[in-house]
Specification:
Layout (H helix, E strand, L loop, with lengths): L1 H15 L5 H21 L3 H24 L12
Helix pairs in contact: 1-2, 1-3, 2-3
């Protein structure tokens, strides 16, 4: 789970700076953030916890940038009719 959180954080952080990849950044960032919180809860060593925090922060920043660039859905998508 530690490695998955780090990978999600890295992917979300990098794609968060690419406007066209806002959906990837948003979804991967959200999954990495919530998965990282759970991983933090069940982790057993200080080294794991330190790496998980890095992944959580990267996921959060990537998700925030992705949401700022367009959100979780493609541009022009609306839930309203």
């Amino acid at each position: 789970m530690t490695i998955a959180t780090l990978v999600c954080g890295l992917v979300a952080f990098v794609t968060g700076f690419i406007v066209a990849a806002h959906m990837i950044a948003s979804w991967v960032g959200a999954v990495g953030f919530w998965g990282g919180l759970y991983a933090q809860f069940v982790s057993s060593t200080t080294r794991q916890r330190a790496l998980i925090i890095v992944g959580i922060v990267g996921s959060f920043v990537g998700a925030a940038l992705g949401i700022a660039h367009g959100g979780f859905f493609p541009r022009g998508f609306s839930l309203r009719n």
